Amino acid sequence: MDVIIRGVDEDLYREFKAEASRRGMKLREALSEAMRLWIRSGEGPDDEFYRRIKGELLKKYRGKHVAISRGRIVAVADTFEEMVEALRRAGVKKALTVHVGEDVEEVREWPGFI
Amino acid sequence: MRRSGSGLGSYEAWGCWPYERDDPPRPVVDVVVEDPLTREWVRVKARVDTGFSGHLLLPWEEFEKVSSLEIPAEERNVYSSVCGPVRMRGAKAYVEALGVRKLCLVETPLVGWAVPLLGRKLLAEARVALLGPEGRLCLLRSRI
């Protein structure tokens, strides 16, 4: 399909176009790929909120299960099951969830991936 | 190594899955993944992958259905592979496989495609035997 988008950042667009060219991609291919990646990344305002309050969570809620939805903490519980119950009672359908101090980024092994 | 007549020693098989046809055949198991919040579930046939150190890898299409409780992007795992680091999205879900049901981190790669893989974190929970010549993966239980 064809689209016309106004008000795109000029410098960013130039940089994007140059990068597409360096990779030997047509602009439409690069844009489609970029959109696909952006959707798949799944990063949203709740991730931003989590980054901002992570230090505070570690101080106040270490060991607790915390859920974040729409830019606020919607549940804090001692167990995962209690947290899920609290989310159900609050009518939350989707949330970021973290076992504070336990769920941390790890570098793991997957030698078979190609 | 001591050998016993049955090949399974003091264990016996109590549930088996046939290998999937390929050359060579591949061990696979049935896995049910349930979203703890929405209770939506998917059933997949996962390849047993002792090289994958996570719980369960899912293709994007399946992951999407059971991932209402994702972990923050900041805490996503990175896997070191022959193609370099692979970053994952991860969600908490109940996984039922190999006679075990537990809360797991199910993952899908941010880029590229994936097939369902059952990794070492789940394999470590179960007693399984790969019976290559018979073309079966079997769950074991103690005879004693």
CATH architecture of chain B: Beta Barrel
Shape of chain B: globular
Report the mean per-residue pLDDT of chain A as an integer: 91
The CATH topology of chain B is: Cathepsin D, subunit A, domain 1
N- and C-termini, Cα separation of chain B: 21 Å
| Count of extended strands of chain A | 4
Structural class of chain B: mainly beta
Structure at a glance:
The complex is a heterodimer of chains A (114) and B (144). Chain A has 114 residues and is an alpha+beta fold.
Task: Explain the overall architecture.
The complex is a heterodimer of chains A (114) and B (144). Chain A is an alpha+beta fold and 114 residues long. Chain A folds into two domains: 10-41, no CATH class; 45-99, no CATH class. Chain A has helices spanning 10-22, 27-41, 45-60, 80-89, and strands at residues 65-69, 72-77, 95-99, 107-109. Chain A has a three-stranded antiparallel sheet with strand order 2-1-3, with helices on both faces. Chain B has one domain (30-142): Beta Barrel (Cathepsin D, subunit A, domain 1). Chain B has two helices and eleven strands, in the order ββββαβββββαββ. In chain B, a hairpin with a 2-residue loop joins strand 6 and strand 7. Residues 1-5 of chain B have low confidence and may be disordered. Classes of the chains: A alpha+beta (114), B mainly beta (144). The A-B interface holds A 37, 40-43, 46-47, 50-51, 54, 67-68, 80, 84, 87-88, 92-98, 103-114 and B 36-38, 49, 51-54, 60, 68-83, 85-86, 89, 92, 103, 109-111. Strand 3 (95-99) of chain A pairs parallel with strand 5 of chain B, so a sheet runs across the interface.
